[in-house]
Amino acid sequence: MVMTNIKKSIERYMERRGCRSMQCRAALIDMDGVLYDSMPHHAEAWYRTMAPLGIACTREDFFLLEGSTRTRTINMFFNREYGHDAPEEVSLALYEEKVRQFRALGDAERMPGADVVIERLLAHDVRTVLVTGSSQGTLLELLDTDYPRAFNMPYRITGEDVVHGKPSPEPYLMGLQRAGVEAHEAIVIENAPLGVQAGVAAGVFTVAVNTGPIPAQALYDAGADIVFDSMPQFAAHIDELIETINTKGV
Ligand code: MG
Q1: Domain with CATH 1.10.150.240 in the chain
Q2: Which residues fall inside 5 Å of ion ligand 1, going by CB?
């Protein structure tokens, strides 16, 4: 079943992009909700920051906004509540509080199955590149220990490196550039609708792994080429995905 989906999804991508060949030479990988099960903490931290101000919000709102920049996230709620953007100093103070709340929740766990995904990519000589909107040092510092060899500099793009965050294609275009590959020579691995939009806008075959509470349809609606229900499910099929893509090479 999934095998058929993999083949079909690749053919659909090639048809849509009008490309004649494909190779899996690089994987551009999101961090929160893919490498770390950190989204519940992010959502909780945002909720604990915004709700006491009387701003109407739910934890699920923050899952849907995942990948968005600080400014964009805060302004969305300010506009909904007060009809204007948050002044920059207020925005910065709120973000500082969110980071404090996130830290207080303790370390997020590695996403189960993510180690296998990384190990299989490296075994196939696929260049792994981190592409995260996050600038939060907490998790970035853990990467070297948790995923050794996978994301050495310069193969690490964070919120500090880009002007426009996801859903802009900029972070993923930068990822392609760092890896030295074309769009049809890479895959994107994402869990959030805005991140999927960014991967698709960069022209890359975009794998969505649904590791949170949002419906899978939201990921298809964002343009995902294929959706897996969990990282272990993706890990069980990643060899097939890479091998099927590589049979489309010239
Ligand atoms: Mg994510």
Answers
A1: 39-104
A2: 30, 32-33, 191-192
Q: How close is the Cα of 194 to the center of ligand 1, in Å?
A: 9
Q: Is the pTM of this model over 0.70?
A: yes
Q: What pLDDT is recorded for position 108?
A: 86
DSSP assignment of 168-231? SSHHHHHHHHHHT--GGGEEEEE-SHHHHHHHHHTT-EEEEE--SSS-HHHHHHTT-SEEESSH
Tell me how far the alpha carbon of residue 61 lies from the centroid of ligand 1, in angstroms: 14
pLDDT digits (tens, 9 = 90+) for 113-127: 999 999 999 999 999
Fold of 2-37+109-246: Rossmann fold (3.40.50)
For the domain made up of 39-104, give the CATH fold: DNA polymerase; domain 1 (1.10.150)
Q: In angstroms, how far is CA 164 from the centroid of its own chain? A: 15
Q: Compute CA distances 182 → 79, 152, 176, whole Å.
A: 38, 21, 6
CA of 223 to the centre of ligand 1 (A): 15
Q: Is the pLDDT of residue 44 over 70?
A: yes
CA of 31 relative to ligand 1 center, distance in Å: 6
Q: What is the pLDDT of residue 170?
A: 96
Check residue 141 and give its pLDDT: 80
Q: Give me the mean pLDDT over the 192-218 stretch.
A: 95
